[in-house]
Amino acid sequence: MESFFSGALNLMHKLWGEFLYILPYLAFGVFLEAIIRTFKWHVKIRKALTRFGPLSILFATLLGTVSPLCACATLPLVISLLLAGIPLAPAIALLVTSPLMSPAAFSMVSGMLGLSWAYTVLFCAVFLGLFAGYLTHFLHRYGFSEDLIFRQKLPAGDFHDPDYPVEELRCECGKQLSHKVARCTHNKFLVFCAKFWEGSIKIGKFALIGLVIEVVVTAFVPNGWIINLLSGEGIWPILTLTFATIPLHLPQVTAASMVFGFFLPDPGQAIPLAKGPGIAMLIGGPVTALPVMGVFYSMFHKRVVLLYLALCVCGTLLLAFTFRFLPIAL
């Protein structure tokens, strides 16, 4: 019994140490996202998406990189934009980009894996959004027009209405603390504090999940094969990680936390993470979140689901192999 408590204490001590290391980056990222949400800058960009034709793909990609919304929150937004008249191409670009990058994700990846990895993930997010968006735009005439993508006609109405008939798309934002504060007061500082609290809980939860998984795995499971995958320079680690992460619910912060834990450095020490496998893990995992794919499959025709998966997988492999063979160090 004593050894059990001693082992549990060691695990908690390691988890606490890793969490303290990432805490400043978590706080800074949440701070930036709270400002964006308080002043609704991402909403202002979103309103421009229906007015710029093919150029809206670029705007959607940029919105995805600054939006504080996760993949599960982005999908109802994307469907509402489609119903409002936005083409499928910018909608796909937004849906691809949003899970990959946000101010909080950039801050935490830079803190855990270094600035070079943060800029690499940002570049990959922008590239994948543009790649998916413009390829979808090209395929518009081949069965991917807006009137052919849904399995059935969705009922009219506001997703924010608590009585909206499609439960999967019904928005629960009205129950959030920040919305309650906004209804009671117009004080921006109080609204900011509420949004900062919400962001801390949401993003901190995903970061802790990644750290807990890593701490438990390193303590009880022989993890040499995982480290070999993440640090491997061959082709198979890239293929293995890309396809193994497809069925996983692996948000960006969780993926980065797991990788960080396996290669926990002293401050300033470089992370020995191979370029190709690192991109496969940090890009391929978040972009195919399982809950999103479930709702996606229930709402859209199979060809749209297959298109989305093909764009995500092919784009991830293209990026991973390109960086694998580029003569640059991260």
Structural features, described:
There is one protein chain. With 330 residues, the chain is mainly α. It has one domain (2-325). It is built from 15 helices and no strands. The chain has helices at residues 2-39, 41-46, 56-66, 71-83, 88-97, 103-113, 115-138, 177-184, 188-220, 224-231, 236-244, 252-262, 275-287, 290-299, 302-325.
Helix and strand content put the structural class at mainly alpha
Overall mean pLDDT:
77
Counted by DSSP, the helix tally is 15
Cα gyration radius (Å): 20 Å
Helix content: 55-70%
- The proportion of strand residues reads under 5%
| Separation, N- and C-terminal Cα atoms | 45 Å
Shape: globular
Give a concise summary.
The chain is mostly helical and 330 residues long. It has helices spanning 2-39, 41-46, 56-66, 71-83, 88-97, 103-113, 115-138, 177-184, 188-220, 224-231, 236-244, 252-262, 275-287, 290-299, 302-325. It has one domain (2-325).
